[in-house]
Amino acid sequence: MKKYFFLAGLPRCGNTLLASILNQNPNIQVTANSLLPEIFLALKPLYQSLIFKNFPDSKSLDNVIHNIFNNYYQDWKAPYIIDRSYWGTPCNLEFLKALNFDLKFIILVRPVLEILASFIKIEKPRNIEKRCDELMADEGMVGKAILSYKALKKENCLIIHYNQLTEEYKDTVKKVYQFLNIPLWGHRFVDLDQLNINGISYNDPVLSAPLHFIKVDKIKKISYKVEEYLPVNIIKKYESDYFKSH
Fold first, then answer.
1. Which end of the chain has fewer CB atoms surrounding its CB within 10 Å, N or C?
2. How confident is the model at residue 34 (pLDDT cuts 50, 70, 90)?
3. Is 145 contained in some domain?
């Protein structure tokens, strides 16, 4: 029987790096960005459909919902699956709590301006202000992750700052194992692998930039002078110490 845990880090905070390290252990598989919330969202409206209301077989439809994880991951060999998504958004968290899992969340954080600067550096958008506003919108990659974080920090979670992951990586990985109550495994922290799960890798050319590419020689913190990438009005608009204390 597989056990499921959840990775709900903000983007550009080392999620792919952490996954690459943990996936060295054959007993653990950290996923890429998960499709499971989208599958649930596609199924949820069926409860309000005319066909269902006409013949409300709740138990059968509940069986589909409750077996989504086991069906999706039935061919994954590892006993521990760490699923990555915006698990703290209201609908996603409602979904998980309905499944009666022993919920544990790993959350990677980083100052918001550093996250935005990282996106701008790698994507090189023509309109920096527009792109930052898109990212910070409630449905944007950063804004959605922040909303998720605000909910999950009230749950059973392990918050990891980007600096901890990149500067104290051995201790940080040990904390992950302790938090998940998984037997410790000997990881290497040099000569890393790009994320590859069951022979499948990220196809980042379909995106605007290689957002899931990691440096493989060694773990190294990537620092940004945010003023080199962000205009003053964006810095003032989104400046926050919200994640600096973690």
1. N
2. very high
3. yes
pTM score: 0.94
Q: What is the mean pLDDT of the chain?
A: 94
What pLDDT score does 244 carry?
55
Q: Is residue 244 part of a domain?
A: no
Q: For residue 245, tell me if it sits in a domain.
A: no
Residue 246: per-residue pLDDT:
41
DSSP for residue 6: E
- With left for phi above 0 and alpha for psi between -120 and 50, is residue 36 left, alpha or beta? alpha
Which residue range(s) make up the domain with 18?
Answer: 3-238
CATH number of 114's domain: 3.40.50.300
Number of domains, the chain:
1
Does residue 137 lie within any of the structural domains? yes
The dihedral sign for the CA sequence 185, 162, 192, 80: positive
Distance CA 142, CA 125 (A): 16
HEC readout, 77-133: CCCEEEEECCCCCHHHHHHHHHCCCCCCEEEEECCHHHHHHHHHHHHCCCCHHHHHH
* Paired tokens of 197: 């799960």
pLDDT tens digits, one per residue of 41-96: 999 999 999 999 999 999 999 999 999 999 999 999 999 999 999 999 999 999 99
Give pLDDT tens digits for 163-177. Answer: 999 999 999 999 999
Q: Determine the angle formed by the axes of helices 128-136 and 141-152, rounding to 10 degrees.
A: 30
